[in-house]
Amino acid sequence: MKGDVLMTIERQVAKGVICGLAIAGLTVAAQAADLSEVVKAPPKLPDTLTWNGITLYGALDVGYAYSNNAAPIGNYFAGVNANVFASPPGRGPISTINTQGYSFVGLRIEEPLGYDWKAIGRIETGFDPLTGQINDGCKTLVDNNGKPNSQQTTSGDSNQCGGLTRQVWVGVSNKTYGQLQIGRNNSLAADSIWGFDPVVIADFSAILWGLGFTAGTGATETTRWNNSAKYVYTNDFLHAGVMFAQGQHQGSSLHGDSYAANFGFNWQGLYVDAVYTAERDAVRSGLFGVGGCGVAGTPSCGTLSVTGQNTDAWALMGKYAYDFTAGAKGAPLNRLTFYAGYQNITYSNPSDPLSIGDTTVGGYMFGAVNNTAYSFDHKRVGFAWIGAKYELGGWAVSAAYYRAMQGYYQGNATATPCSTNAHSYCSGSWETASLSAVYSFDKHWDVYGGVVWSKLNGGFSAGYDDPETTTFLTGVILRF
């Protein structure tokens, strides 16, 4: 009996891999109609795991990746850095079992209070299924402090630095009056921009991967706000939101009071959204180079090298969905959606300088602080994207192009205009393009595959020997 069960599991895994490879080969059109006859659907799961108004939910993502220019995977990071704009810079081909950082688990609370009011809440954390560790971007920086690039594993600043650092909030909701959430919330920029991304799998998207330019409006750690109150109102035609975070010097990525506002509408398949964000005394963390920590006269290698900054950002985005089966009852999904958006971010020095000894998310301490990165000039970055997604039955095929553009800014007293990779303040660009496909057996099981290409130019490529990479990805996601 036990042997039969193991054989069944092995067959299901084998079939999942075959399906993932088929998607990676982009044989969508040929196989869409008869995939269910070739690969049996995974076992059915309950629609929800709910008890007394508390729902357990999450996702588990495991797959395979090959990159022609990447670094080895660390213990606390989300798999291969599929984008060239990564730390450390890629130093050769990587072939590995992979996860994209999409794996998470949480509890959703929803309890009726009467008169259409509900008590709501969310507790959520991310984890790496390959190592069993809670997602901790700050730990990856600390682990690589003082090491040359040739000895570093993947690392990166993150809004997830151990513990329950995805979302933790409570609130109330009403269909007529809207929803109020208090605690650690996704930023309004995250809520808005993520909904206008043509790509549904993280590593194929520069929006989902490059949170410092999008959801974090200039600082990845501020994708989620501590000590925040968020109010959103939605009806059939429009939605609006406002958000406030009270800054604090310990355990937060925002040390100053910060604000955001959002407005959007939809009409006959057209969706338009705008969001404005003002972040004050935000934390952008990095690691120490060789000799920069752990020796006499330098900070401890268990601390972070931090830049303090204010950012002011606005974004305007839209999408148009055309349903080929509109009005046909019971017809399978057949929809084409076009996406476009633009975000503008202005960086300046913090209003209230950060201090050595202060901490960010996860309690990580600042060993060195730069509060004067923009003393001679403001830094301005534009981020634009276009793309399309075609959905047919259980298939979703996405193509997308993303481009970040930085103008020259005077980085120091003697800096002169430049567009080379000699300095990070030179003008430059970061490009990403991807083609991906997802097949959903049902609401719980997805298989995906595709390719992502990225390249750095000018100031964005400072410190990179080979500023271009191509990565192939395939995998399976279980949602519950």
Automatic annotation (TrEMBL):
Gene3D superfamilies: Porin (2.40.160.10)
Keyword set includes Membrane: yes
InterPro entries, sorted: Gram-neg_bact_OMP, Gram_neg_porin_domain, Porin_dom_sf
GO CC annotation terms, alphabetical: cell outer membrane; pore complex
Signal peptide per UniProt: 1-32
Main location: membrane
Bilayer topology annotation: Multi-pass membrane protein
Keyword set, alphabetical order: Cell outer membrane, Ion transport, Membrane, Porin, Signal, Transmembrane, Transmembrane beta strand, Transport
Compartment list: Cell outer membrane
GO molecular function: porin activity
Claim: rRNA processing is one of the keywords in the record: no
One biological process term in Gene Ontology: monoatomic ion transport
Quaternary organization: Homotrimer.
Protein name as catalogued: Porin domain-containing protein
UniProt lineage: Bacteria, Pseudomonadati, Pseudomonadota, Alphaproteobacteria, Hyphomicrobiales
